[in-house]
Amino acid sequence: MTEPAVFLTGFPGFLGSALLERVLARGDGPVACLVQPQYREVARQRAREITDGIDGVDAEAAIHLYEGDITEPDLGLGDDRNGLESVSELYHLAAVYDLGVDRELAEAVNVRGTEHVLEFATRLDVDRLHYVSTCYVSGRYDGVFTEAHLQEGQSFNNHYEETKYRAEVAVSERMAEGMPATVYRPAIVVGDSRTGETDKFDGPYYLLNMVLAQPSWLTAAFRFPDSSDTELNVVPRDFVVDAIAHLSASEETIGEVYQLCDPSPLPVSAFVDALADAAGHRTVTVPTAKPLARAVTGLLEHTALDLEPATLDYLDHPTRYACPATNRALAGSGLEVPPFESYADRLVDFVRQNPDVGDEPMV
């Protein structure tokens, strides 16, 4: 059996699975995937599904599953680390993607987990590290946040943002010391723009569920004072994964940071209107003080109108995102963020057809 050339964390997660498919399709395997023991069978099934769609690729030969956990030293591999000396590239996607995550879990996975991956990459002496961060390392930065920004003295909406920020700082410090790496910062990732597929309903999906739970003839939405210019920067999974696959294939992108965001995002009010239009609902915006909105969402918890309280902070989020480095690097590739209105109906259809999909992160 051919030894793996690529190591990937975050499989069989939503982004990790799609990126694994792209990496194998371009011939960069075999790929060693770090999988938590409780997801071993899910990973096996997903590996078969991925390789069944690629001619001439065998699941067992192309995808090697290693049981472990980034929260443990040496990624919990122990002696199973033998056989990975051939790895030259490492993709780190594993994280807790949850706005309401508690501090202890976010610290263990996003910060210490990334530190363990950096140590592992150093021991393997990989030729390149690919790290998936988030645009929201910006926290509540007041202004336009680009790839050139990171440590700006910003405050944060939640533990997810803060721990992803600290993780990227750790990666940035290793890059400054000479580690060859590329950082990718997606904005808010929603389902596939072609199929609507997603693996959990969180973030903007709370807004969609709030719309769907109300009468179609009159649906109410919050609007906070002085938030008319607030943007909700959303990108579909296929754009994010295609962009990472394209950028990671070039040696010219080593040492760079790329924000995978929408250069022309919708204001929050227009975003909600687009969801409502796709769902066939008529909306009315209700000016609401933020403390009152928090109280209302608390009362609605565990009802059909359940809305994660952490989502409210993005309805008056002060940061706008720009991606000049990404625009330059993707020029001529044909890759660009589709307008949200062009695929909102597919997101709505998927939600309606898959009511059993939850909002729990894979941890």
Automatic annotation (TrEMBL):
SUPFAM superfamilies named among the record's database cross-references: NAD(P)-binding Rossmann-fold domains
Listed GO biological process terms: long-chain fatty-acyl-CoA metabolic process
One Pfam match: NAD_binding_4
GO molecular function: alcohol-forming very long-chain fatty acyl-CoA reductase activity
Domain Thioester reductase (TE) as annotated: residue spans: 8-244
Protein name (Swiss-Prot/TrEMBL): Oxidoreductase, short-chaindehydrogenase/reductase family
Organism of this sequence: Natrarchaeobaculum sulfurireducens
